[in-house]
Amino acid sequence: MFTLSIIVFIIMLIASVLHFYWALGGKYGLMSAGPNLENGKDFVPSSWLIFIVASLLFGLAILPLQLVAPMEQFKGYVHYVGYCVSLVLVVRAIGDFKYVGFFKKVYNSNFATLDTKYFSPLILFLGVSYGLLSGAST
Known about the structure:
- The structure is a single chain.
- This protein is mainly α.
- It has one domain.
- The protein has 4 helices and no strands.
- It has helices spanning 2-23, 47-68, 78-94, 110-137.
- Helix 1 runs antiparallel to helix 2, helix 2 packs across helix 3 and helix 3 packs antiparallel against helix 4 (110-137).
- The longest helix has 28 residues, at 110-137.
- The radius of gyration is 16 Å and the shape is globular.
């Protein structure tokens, strides 16, 4: 389980750093990171929203390490946080049945292709991993 926690930590840390890069004004890959809406416009959130997501992803990078070796004050409930994160990620992988996830209906963008090939499978892997790590920490 320690190896799995390190893999999840690295993936989430990379995602966090990428989002911080975008929040600070970086453009590389940004247009492929969100879906195209029905009106033909790209979904591009504000820098503040991207910064909040980056911060949350950084916290989620620390979580698998806490699930394997929790600090004393977190021992009683850290696995509940892990289960909640697991549930949210699995639901995201399944999708909203329109723009994101395995069951999306809109396939006419670069994001949709990347989501089908990479994002949704990776998010499903992370969701299952958080669930496994949470089960091992109880």
